[in-house]
Amino acid sequence: MRPVLSSWAFALCLTSCCGSVLPHSGTPSYNYFTSAEHPLAVEEDRVSSGPNIDISNEERASAVKDAFTFAFNNYWELCKGQDELLPVTNACGNSRNHWGASAIDALSTALIMGIRPIVAEILEYIPTIDFTTTATHVSLFETTIRYLAGMLSAYDLLQGPLSELSSNPAAVESLLAQSKSLADSLKFAFDTPTGIPANDIFFTTRSTGGATSNGLATTGSLQLEWQRLSDLTGDPEYSILAQKAETYLLNPQPAWAEPFPGLVGTRIDITNGLFLDATGGWNGGDDSFYEYLLKMYVYDSSRYGNYSDRWILAADSTMEHLVSHPSSRPQLTFLASFADTSFVNSSQHLTCFDGGSFLLGGQVFDKKEYIDFGLALVKGCRATYEQTATRIGPEQFSWNTSAIMPDQADFFENSGFYITNPSYALRPEVLESFYYAFRITGELRFLLNVCFSLVFDNPKPL
Question: CA nearest 382: which of 331, 341, 423, 420?
Answer without folding.
Answer: 331
